[in-house]
Every structure is written in C-alpha cells, then in structure tokens.
C-alpha cells in the first residue's frame, strides 16, 4: 500500500553536488555566521553515497571540482563571507573575526579517536565529553587546529580522512567503518548597540554614538559535519571477524541515534516528561547539542535506487521522516 512521506527537498540521480549545497547547505553557513550551532548529518545504508555527498572521501590529484561535496563547498563559502566581513570591518570597525578552529574525530567501535593527532595511540590524551556551567558540551583531549584559509582547512580534512578507518565488504569496497565528525568552530567579536542608552540620547536630541552606547559581544558557534557509517545487514555484507564487530557497533550507534530522534520528534513529549537517552552511545552524546538548543540541523538521507535495496531504502526514509518532526 503506497505511503506518502514529506521532506524539504528531494534530489534525484541527475542532481549535482552544487545544486545540493545551494539548496540546503548555504543557509546553514549563514546561520553559523550568526552565532548558531549548525550540523549536517548524512544518513543511509552502506554504499548509498554519504561520504561522497559530504565530501570527506579520500582526495586525489584528479579530483573533479564538480564532485566536491558539502564540506569543501561550505568551507569555501564560509571564508568568502568572512573575507567580506573583514573588509567591511576595516571600513566600519564594527566586526572582527578570529580564524576558525578545526577538529576531526571518529567513533570507531565506540572509542573516540582524534584524527588530527598523529602520535601513537598510547601517547594520545583520552578524549572526554563533559558539560560546562551553562550546559554546553566540551570535548577535552581533542586537537583544535587553527585555520585562516580554505587551503588550511582542506589540508586538515585530508589528513584526518587518511587516518580514518575503512574496510571492504561485499556491498562496498571502501566502506567507512566509523562515524566521523569534522568540526569548524568560530569565535566572533561583534559590537552591539545599547538600545536604552541610545534612546536616552535621542530623547536628549543627541545623535552621536560613542563606545559607551554599545558593548562587544563574543559569539561562539560550531559547525559539525557528520559522516555516519552506513547501516548494514550482516547477511548482505558477509562481514566476518573485525568487519562483523565493526558492523554491530555501527548499527548500535545508529539505533541509539534513532531512539533519541524518535523521542525528540514525539508530539506528546512536552505533555509527558520523558528521559532522552543521549548517553546510550558516544554518537548521541557528541551530537547532544546538535539535536536541541540553539542549533540548526540538516539530515541528508542517502538512498539507493536499486530495487533489491527496497527494505533499506524504506528504513532510511522512515528514519529521516521522524527526524523532520523534531522542533
């Protein structure tokens, strides 16, 4: 029996990477620059094109610019906007932007691994997640690299991608065996008018504005680019040994994320106090501030057009449809 599903945008097999970014990606960069946390999630079965869409695949010299995914395009758009703001600041002295900070981690078999730290595993600090006094998540032990250009960010992306865990299964020759989170952080200083003081001066018919009528506000925002490992059925991937263990942990993390999404998207949640199981997995714990608060989150559901993948496609569509109900 046919069942309808509603989404904000649908892209077919002939859609380009540029179309995807212009339709759904550029708006998140604008929100990010305005001080909001932003997140892009790519979800779907293994070998459905998540890593390609995100643009976090291993890069090579023959890389076609038309195939660039959301991450490279968002970074280019971000620095283009920052450059325009910097030029404007030089004229008006209204805004100053500090270079971006980059981190790149993966969740492999429920362990957090810093992809930008080339030290041996035993020499790396343990990565912990805690909350500050304001309830904001802080990742301790993660490398925060400074970047002031698109080229620097892309070098960090390539470095982390080369360190990421991949493996071969019957469904994908280069299957991602971990969930990866590439994060861009921005700290901006913006000068804000003190409205009450300004109204007082206007009542006194004084129109000049000095620093006493305003204050410098620091905006700190994060942009998470999340390339989830693909959900998979062990029967179809024929995974054994380490590949089998990886697949079980991948599915466990995605199940925990699905449970959180189901509770957050439940229209009756506000009527009944419900526990949200963020701590059931490392993935949901890291994405806690992306699924609520002042965040703007986009989920891209990647599906296969092949008929023999119908069950996985339906599961992906149902999963994404529940995510769309989150307010």
From TrEMBL:
Keywords, sorted A to Z: ATP-binding, Coiled coil, Cytoplasm, Microtubule, Motor protein, Nucleotide-binding
Residues in coiled coil: none
Gene3D superfamilies linked to this entry: Kinesin motor domain
A GO CC annotation given for this chain: cytoplasm
Residues that bind ATP: 44-51
InterPro entries tied to this protein: Kinesin-like_fam, Kinesin_motor_CS, Kinesin_motor_dom, Kinesin_motor_dom_sf, P-loop_NTPase
Protein name in UniProt: Kinesin-like protein
Annotated organism of origin: Umbelopsis ramanniana AG
Lineage start: Eukaryota, Fungi, Fungi incertae sedis, Mucoromycota, Mucoromycotina
